[in-house]
């Protein structure tokens, strides 16, 4: 492929691609990184010219603020290749906007839209052979910004790095998960950073999740930090609960992240004629629905797995199984979303973004 040097973005290509060393039949998720990455530095009060360079390590001073104060935000998105070899993204402008929403909350300067979008497009064209084509696989894209400025003083950094790195990844399907409704620890709080994809949010989830894993669960269901009476998220995914024929999800807030998959699930469900309610969901309501057998489905929604079906949940030392049902909303909605992502179906929502 002949890539013109973009006046805005400087490109340095790898001398030797590593692609032939990669076992595309056993990719796993997020393990192997593609040949190139986009790097953009913030210094002297502005974002400098973005560059695409061969994948390489980053060298930082021990006093760099990312190490001490966790000033970092990230995004997660995917690129797909359709049957004609076209590169497609799914609602990428929503990721671009959300990265800046997260950045603002962490006192990180916002990245110009063009640096993100143009940089990403050039990177994808350069590494297009790294986009896997096997069913369910895609190129996982990880844009992130972190504080690279130096000094132990607890204050916002004066230097940052914005990087986009990509990883060819297989299908994320991990089987049905068993989850534990958490009543002690919280993922987020009013006025906090739960709505942002801030690195520290995930560090704070690891320990409670480890405790749940020791008890035989795979994930934690987060409840509100104040009363622990309301269901909020499933691990790092939004959560949907089907009671009878109604699909329910919590409203976004300071504490619930505005997931792009969540928005897409709501739109598809409504298009399918499924009744959707966006409202607070009491744990008690879910327990009662389980007991009177109106609880039909629970699933997580997020970019990595699209839909993660939940097979059972634990609450106060008791487990509740989800029934096996015929007309599964989660499976139906997942098919519709992935058909749009891989350009196998008409996209009446305008979600597809062709990388040309
Ligand atoms: C990223 C994320 C989601 C899902 O967002 P998508 O845009 O659908 O990938 C949900 N909850 C949390 C806490 C997240 O970090």
């Amino acid at each position: 492929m002949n890539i013109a040097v973009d006046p805005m973005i400087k490109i340095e290509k790898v001398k030797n691609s590593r692609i032939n060393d990669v076992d595309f039949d056993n990719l796993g998720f997020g393990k192997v990184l593609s040949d190139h990455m986009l790097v953009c530095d913030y210094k002297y009060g502005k974002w400098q010219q973005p560059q695409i360079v061969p994948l390489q390590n980053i060298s930082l001073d021990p006093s760099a603020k990312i190490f001490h104060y966790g000033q970092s935000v990230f995004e997660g998105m995917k690129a797909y290749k359709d049957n004609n070899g076209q590169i497609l993204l799914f609602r990428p402008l929503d990721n671009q906007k959300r990265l800046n929403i997260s950045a603002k909350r962490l006192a990180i300067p916002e990245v110009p839209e063009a640096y993100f979008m143009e940089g990403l497009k050039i990177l994808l064209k350069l590494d297009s052979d790294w986009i896997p084509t096997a069913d369910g696989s895609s190129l996982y894209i990880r844009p992130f910004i972190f504080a690279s400025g130096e000094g132990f003083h607890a204050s916002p950094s004066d230097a940052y790095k914005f990087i986009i790195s990509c990883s060819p990844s297989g299908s994320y399907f991990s089987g049905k998960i068993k989850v534990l409704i958490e009543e002690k620890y919280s993922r987020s709080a009013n006025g906090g950073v739960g709505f942002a994809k801030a690195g520290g949010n995930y560090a704070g989830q690891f320990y409670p999740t480890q405790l749940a894993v020791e008890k035989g669960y795979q994930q934690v269901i987060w409840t509100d930090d104040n009363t622990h009476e309301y269901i909020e998220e499933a691990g790092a995914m939004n959560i949907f609960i089907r009671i009878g024929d109604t699909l329910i999800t919590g409203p976004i807030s300071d504490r619930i992240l505005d997931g792009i998959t969540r928005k897409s699930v709501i739109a598809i469900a409504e298009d399918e004629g499924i009744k959707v309610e966006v409202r607070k969901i009491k744990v008690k309501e879910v327990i009662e629905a389980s007991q009177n057998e109106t609880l039909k489905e629970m699933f997580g929604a997020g970019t990595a797995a699209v839909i993660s079906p939940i097979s059972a949940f634990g609450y106060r030392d008791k487990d509740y199984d989800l029934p096996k049902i015929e007309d599964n909303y989660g499976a139906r909605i997942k098919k519709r979303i992935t058909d749009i992502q891989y350009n196998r179906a008409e996209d009446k929502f305008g979600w597809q973004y062709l990388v040309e």
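The chain has two domains: 10-169, 177-341. The chain has a mean pLDDT of 96.
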